[in-house]
Amino acid sequence: MRATATVSLSLMALLSACQTSTTNTPVANEPAPPIAKRVAHELVAHGHTRVDNYYWLRDREDPEVIAYLEAENAYTQAATAHTATLRADLLAELTGRVVPDDSTAPVRSRDYFYYTRWVEGGEHPLYCRKHQSLEADEQIILNANALAKDHAYFDTGGLAFSENQQLMAYATDTVGRRFYTIYVQDLRTGALLADVIPNVSGDLEWANDDATLFYTKQDPETLRTHQLFRHTLGEDPAQDVLVYEEQDETFELGLWKTKSRAYLVLDSYSTLSNEARVLSAAAPQAEPRIIQSRERGLEYDVDHMGEHFFIRTNLEAKNFRLMKTPVNATTKQSWQEVVPHREGVLLEGFELFRDHLVLEQRSRGLTQLSIRRWDGGEAHELDFGEPAYLAYATGNDVLDTQTLRYSYSSMTTPDAEYDYDMNTRDKTLVKQLEVRGAFEPEDYVTERLDAPARDGVGVPISLVYRHDTPLDGSSALLVYAYGSYGASMDAEFSASVLSLLDRGFVYAIAHVRGGEELGRDWYEDGKLLRKQNTFTDFIDATEHLIDQGYGDRSKVFAEGGSAGGLLIGAVVNMRPDLYAGAIAAVPFVDVVTTMLDDSIPLTTSEYDEWGNPNEKQYYDYMLAYSPYDNVVAQDYPALLVTTGLHDSQVQYWEPAKWVAKLRATKTGDDVVLLRTDMSSGHGGKSGRLERYEEIAFDYAFLLDLAG
Q1: Of residues 590, 629, 647, 677, which has the active-site annotation?
Q2: Does the pTM of the predicted model rise above 0.85?
Q3: Which residues form the Peptidase S9A N-terminal domain (predicted)?
């Protein structure tokens, strides 16, 4: 596609600052794309030399780098100016479906019901609670709109309440780089205490003495969460006690409290292994105690009830099983099996109740909730009655109850939360997402297909479209996937995607290898030296959808973000002819260079996901698919690439360098656009309604290409 907007004088000035003497001559009335200067930088590994002409873009403090990013933004605006009316219509449509003063379902935690709600025009929530009864007066405990008032970006991290529920600790980030500041508020008076703790990760938990707060901190360069500190109210945070420091650079720390509230769990985790420590919430000065020492390949997570820790583990169980162990004998030799390993059933989580055990599991790619009594009896599963859906337990903070709270949605059913009586098997709707406008679920159809991959396996695909959309090969088709870290992309409801469906699109989620939809093997078969399966699965799924009449070959689009952006980058290198356009959001595209640089956030902790390129077999394999390293002189589909200047997970320079190299190398006239949010990080804009501006921009890009 070729854009037809004119270029302003200010844009031309920015472009000229970034162009070399080899700039392309623009066609009359068309904006000229920025052409980044080339500065050869040699990267040598294993006797192999790569030349990176855009390595200089890594310095975010360099005014020339900022000028280049701003020039790209200006070019993107000019090149898409003709879609301004469509974007405005889409934005009004997207925000028009949102209930402006909506609230979440209240969750019971000890003496209070907690919930969040929004006010009309507010970008951030109010955090609220009611004492003992939903009929009680509301107490607004945190007004995020007021806190965000003077900041372009604002995010609330962990919220934690003291045991007496009269003190609240919360963390805020005003940059988007995941460095938070902790504040402590007295909920009886509303006053902030003098305790302010900067540069933390956002994970925080109270001990049970109402005076001790635990929190984690990151390495300032790599952003690896590696330290646990203990703070006593009223004392200088500079004197806080370092409780534990993770020395292994491939491990990070996570912190949470058990459902029993008796223990804090400090989890040291990597891609393939972890090691949990527990701290008594009643004895905050005590040393953490290891549950089971780390072993390569051994994964487990921990909760507590009564005299036992309950442990979900892959010990001799690739799809995980559930164990228990006495609190005073926690090594694996003492573990006793509660739920055995099952072929074809992936145990993803569990919920403990006094009389019941709830298993969150996955079979045939679909989530299940399985309920059993501790005193015996046959387990039963909830029946959801749709071919593709998402169901999970949520908001279950109370052990002594027979009620399970769960959430359910499908691609045609808006999110709903239910209270389920595990004894009588009756369910009560607590809250369902209201979709304003003309939405009627029966106007849409959802399907589940299997696409044959080139090696013979079946790749699941979840689909949704309007009932009147023709399936004769004439419709526009958008295919989305992620395919990394074992993260499953479920068939859940999206009110936003209705704007594409109502304009004739078919929307598909390809559940490619690298996710965990079909169990642990599905994940293992899409990582490390089998990563290429992720990309070929996506291509084969797309081809199958076209062959089955779900899309017109000239109107097929692809979308993915972060590690899913890597997928997009690889796929458009491998099969650029298959897609008319693609959206790569915060894409991880410079794989080899990033994974060779252990100063970059997430590098060392992800060797077990991608491989360590300091070892030649991984270097060679990663080099064969790394999108940045495989840009060649060929026609590419139209591309919209997005990033955030303060992204801590995929550094902004990866997509920036990729776009620069594509411009200098590719043939053909299809547009390549880079859109950098100069005030946000990996998650994009932080405001509730602001985010729809990004979605409207993306959808306008696709609809314009589809014609």
Answers
A1: 647
A2: yes
A3: 34-432
